[in-house]
Amino acid sequence: MRWILQSSTVAKGRFSGWSRVLAVLLAMLAVCAPGFAQQDVKGSADHPLFPKRMPGFFIYTYDQVAFSSRTFQTKPPQTVEGKYTRIDYVQQKEQANPGDLAIRRNYENAIQAAGGEVLYSDSYRTVLKATREGKEVWTELITSPGVARYQLYIIEREAMQQVITADAMAASIDKTGFVALDIHFATGKAEILPDSQPEVAEIVAMLKKRPTLRVGVEGHTDNTGPAAANKALSEKRAQAVRAALVADGIDATRLRAAGYGPERPIADNRLEEGRAKNRRVEIVKD
């Protein structure tokens, strides 16, 4: 193939366009080249909402950001903020291309089976929405016509976390005798997630400012699942927060831990919004 470069501004613009096309072609050739590593890129994983990818595909690129936004091409378009994940799937060589429509239908069926909905679909783009663990999860699936490849852009909707300050905690305890916290744990476990460490640090700061204050750390859950298991989990989570406070220098004799499971709801458990409020840790003045 011969490439002829012209000196005019128009020719330069065309060359810029050809450069982009060439870059895409080279990327496709790299994927198809013999010996190309056809396994998931290190550190990647399927999203929990879609644990089963299309058969014969691997994760070529993967990106995850704690907080970002994406405008989903619904009618009208909607911008959603929260945890962002991008997964790029490419088909392994010597596999039959299932076709764009089959890929889209598989994901549409999966979201509907999970109680979600299809918000928009055209010949290469599908927008899906579902609720998982109390959060809206928005997904944009983009297929590439004629190429066995597709991308998922996923936003787990949530507001930018505003950590309650030590002074605000103290004010709430003075006024009501307790403060409800939004401490996040690994699903079904008592492991405090990293995004909640700043809030734990504020509890420590509040207790250090008030060295004579004794408090209870109380765990609560919603009513989903067996009550006994929920109570045991809430107890373990309260103990985990207490242990974190002790590790940061708070005298253990000032801290009591207890778990009440679903026994003390503060919102309607029939609604997901209410269940989310009931899953909480409270610091209570003793």
- Secondary-structure element pattern, one letter each: HEEHEEEEHEHEHEHE
**What is Rg?**
25 Å
The profile of the biggest β sheet is: 6 strands, antiparallel
Strand content: 25-35%
Q: Name the strands of the widest sheet in spatial order.
A: 1-2-6-5-4-3
Number of strands: 10
Coarse morphology: elongated
Cα-to-Cα separation, first versus last residue: 81 Å
The proportion of residues forming helix, as a percent range, comes to 25-40%
Count up the helices.
6
How many independent structural domains? 3
Give the uncertain stretches in residue-range form: 1-16
Question: Summarize this, please?
Answer:
This protein is of the alpha+beta class and 286 residues long. It contains six helices and ten strands. The strands form two sheets. A six-stranded antiparallel sheet has the order 1-2-6-5-4-3, with helices on one face. Strands 7-10-8-9 form a four-stranded mixed sheet.
